[in-house]
Amino acid sequence: MTSPRRSRLVAAVCLAAAAALAAGCSKEEGSGTASSDTSQGAQVVQSPSADSSGSGCALEAYGATKIDLKNAVVGFSQSEKEANPFRIAETQSIKDEAAKLGVKKLLTTNAQSQLSKQISDIKDMLAQGAQLLIVAPLNSDGLEPALQAAAAKHVPVITVDRKLNATACKDYVAFLGSDFVEQGKRAADAMIQVTGGKGKVAILLGSSGNNVTTDRTKGFVDQIKAKAPGLEIVAQQTGEFARDKGQQVMEQLIQSKPDITAVYAENDEMGLGAVTALKGAGKKPGKDVKIISIDGTRNAVQALADGQYNGVIESNPRFGPLAFETAQKFFAGESIPENVIISDRAYDASNAKDSLSGAY
For residue 275, what is the enclosing H or E element? Predict the structure, then answer.
């Protein structure tokens, strides 16, 4: 007869196993989840000589009023639906840092990839008394009505992850984010390494209308032309930064360009969509077709560790600490550079497995 103590032990083991299984299922490719541990992979600003451009912006020049964030209402405008791990991690980082600092009230909105909604979201937050705005712009152009509404109330705007085609220290305080041209160059260098500098490459472009797509394309194309003339870029089609669209475009390219040997995806979601398409066509991603992408999501780094991917250039979304640190400096009277550029890591076959904990 089994003792009561042994029965309890068996039950506990079974519960633990079930929990582990559930956790494993929640991290399956395609889950759309991201690591909530924002202490991992914190952003690092490049050296002052590299991260500053423009004359800088101070509180008096901007025409804003000094405030204490602990007694302030802060608004965060997210641009895209949070099905993408980048957006999940970005929003969570803002929320976590606001809570850590004891911000009086954090307003958060999501534009669901609609420019008109982002404009109305920002205006709504201003109507609710927002005294600082952190904005992840959907597009580089088109937010002028929202920026004008903020300027009319002398509310500072800090932009993250995408640049605005606007005037620094007039329409916004500063841009915080990566050097997207450099990301494209690094992706090209990784592609050259894994292909030996020869083959036919397809580019899965991000969404149009923002500097991320333009710059990541320019950096990659220019670097390939300069360093690897044996790598021919045979197709450039937009996958709109979405996994399903990336898969759809890749399926079409497999039919129209069956001799493609490499794919450069301008974000991980499109790259993972390409993996699915290649598998469906009986090809081995990572072997028959090399794949390099940008972001650093856990799913992509896992695919790299599993041999179905060949390289990932990080684009770190954990803007919370840097955004609020920048705001604190600004309200303390410090001059903020027009562009605050962060450093991004790179993942390859040699470090992917050990680096999973730092991915998001």
Answer: helix 268-280
The CA-atom distances, in angstroms, between 53 and each of 48, 61, 340 are 10, 17, 8
Look up residue 316 and give its two tokens.
């770190």
- Which string of DSSP letters, residue by residue, matches 44-102? EEPPHHHH--SS-B-HHHHT-----GGG-EEEEEE-S-TTSHHHHHHHHHHHHHHHHHT
The string of DSSP codes covering 279-345 is: HHTT--BTTTBEEEEEE--HHHHHHHHTTS--EEEE-----HHHHHHHHHHHHTTPPBPSEEEEE--
**CB under 8 A, 24+ apart: contacts of 282-289:** 283/254, 284/308, 285/309, 286/310, 288/261, 289/260, 289/261, 289/262, 289/263
Tell whether the model's pLDDT for residue 34 goes beyond 80: no
Token pair, residue 5, equals 């103590």
- The dihedral over CA atoms of 130, 133, 137, 138, expressed in degrees to the nearest 10, equals -20
End-to-end CA distance of the chain: 48
Cα–Cα–Cα angle for 249, 254, 258, rounded to 5 degrees: 145
Answer whether 172's CB lies under 8 Å from 158's CB.
yes
Identify which of 327, 288, 326 has the alpha carbon closest to the alpha carbon of residue 307: 288
Rounded Cα distance between 80 and 137, Å, is 9
Q: Using CA atoms, how far apart are residues 152 and 150, in angstroms rounded to an integer?
A: 5
* pLDDT category of residue 54 using cuts at 50, 70 and 90: low
Q: How far apart are CA 283 and CA 59, in angstroms?
A: 56
pLDDT score recorded for residue 40: 56
The mean pLDDT of the chain is 89
268 versus 47: the higher-pLDDT residue is: 268
Using CA atoms, how far residue 218 sits from 91, 160, 262, 334, in Å, is 28, 21, 18, 34
Q: Half-sphere exposure of residue 186, counting CA atoms within 13 Å on the CB side?
A: 21
CA distance 186 to 179: 11
CA 276 – CA 338 distance, rounded (Å): 40
pTM here is: 0.86
Q: What is the pLDDT of residues 219-231, one digit of tens each?
A: 999 999 999 999 9
Query: Is a pLDDT exceeding 70 seen at residue 31?
Result: no
